[in-house]
Design brief:
The protein is of the alpha/beta class. It has 2 domains: 141 residues, Flavodoxin domain (Rossmann fold), CATH 3.40.50.360; 154 residues, Rossmann fold (3-Layer(aba) Sandwich), CATH 3.40.50. Strand 7, helix 5 and strand 8 form a beta-alpha-beta unit. The protein starts with 8 loop residues before the first helix and ends with a helix.
């Protein structure tokens, strides 16, 4: 309550400034990721921004990771409206995922007009050319040459350390689906066909099928998602990070690209040499079922080890290129 004889300050402030607070302090270099917004961020997105942040710190590059408060990440700057930081920012680095113009991103870009804009570990989409044109430097994982790799994988668990199912009937199958995917345009989305293929494959499987959702939430924590990959004997997925996280956990994966003509899953996972990568338009449920039986009967240990080594090498190169880009542009 205001003291007697003193005016209420809120009554003197313009309506647009009521409740206004000074924005928190932020480094001139800020990492923006899908977790800078309240919904949609995945474990892969988080691992990518954490890996790049660690690499920048090791290189002596001060920066701030911007995250929405709902993610409750203690080492990040929690802020609901990152565009309020525009006056402090000199360089924005967009990390991981496809670069897609959203309402929140448009508002951030509008507020940060003169700010240098970079991207690392991202998918470049032709449909987003106006956004792509704003970037002064890119380390792409796909969609542009030179293409590097995803930034999410920093370590792998050897497949030999995993226990094997006692029988095919007891094998645990992880199902990690992306769902509808409009990033490449609705005409190229084959998510329904991919889901139907997996449903047919799993119809005769007598063992447990465990859904794995990689989207972060208050209840679906990073630890819980990671435990989901480690708890199964085989993963069926339409997700890029679903494939990479499974292999990093030492688990064989059957990956089906649900984008007509192939999208990021084909381009990025394909560089690892993993043999069980298919397109929804060019495979059958019988073909996938046969691969599933082979993987469960005899785990492809050599193929997993080879792909893990390739992932770690490509990830390291992508991180090095990303750090060099930030140093060059923000230095």
């Amino acid at each position: 309550m205001a003291e007697p004889g003193r005016p209420r300050l809120t009554g003197l402030l313009p309506a647009g400034l009521r409740g206004w607070r000074q924005p928190p302090a932020c480094s001139p270099v800020a990492l923006v990721w899908w977790g800078s917004w309240p919904r949609g961020a995945t474990l892969g997105d988080l691992l990518a921004v954490e890996n790049l942040s660690a690499a920048l710190l090791a290189a002596g590059v001060p920066h701030t990771v911007l995250s929405h408060p709902r993610h409750a990440l203690p080492t990040h700057l929690a802020i609901r409206r990152p565009w309020r930081l525009a006056g402090q920012l000199r360089t924005l680095v967009f990390v991981c995922g496809p670069l897609v113009m959203t309402k929140r991103l448009r508002r951030l870009l509008s507020a940060c007009g003169p700010t240098r804009k970079l991207a690392a570990g991202v998918s470049i989409l032709e449909r987003q050319d106006p956004l792509n044109a704003l970037l002064e430097g890119v380390v792409a994982r796909d969609g542009r040459e030179p293409a590097f790799f995803d930034l999410a994988i920093g370590h792998c668990r050897p497949a030999l350390e995993r226990p094997r199912p006692a029988s095919l009937a007891g094998a645990r199958i992880g199902l990690c689906l992306r769902g509808p995917q409009k990033d490449y345009g609705p005409a190229r989305d084959r998510s329904a066909a991919a889901a139907d293929l997996f449903q047919q494959v799993l119809a005769d499987h007598p063992g447990p099928v465990l859904p794995i959702d990689t989207v972060l939430s208050a209840t679906n924590t990073p630890a819980r998602i990671q435990a989901g990959f480690e708890a199964v004997d085989l993963v069926l997925t339409t997700r890029l990070h679903g494939s990479l996280l499974a292999l990093a956990a030492g688990v064989p994966v059957i990956a089906v690209d649900q984008i007509a003509g192939g999208g990021k899953l084909t381009e990025v996972l394909g560089r690892t040499g993993w043999p069980h990568l298919f397109n929804a338009e060019a495979c059958s449920s019988d073909q996938l079922a046969a691969v599933m039986r082979r993987c469960l009967e005899t785990c492809p240990l050599e193929a997993i080890a080879s792909s893990q080594a390739r992932m770690l090498l490509l990830s390291r190169q992508a991180l090095e290129a990303s750090v060099a880009l930030v140093q060059q542009q923000a230095g």
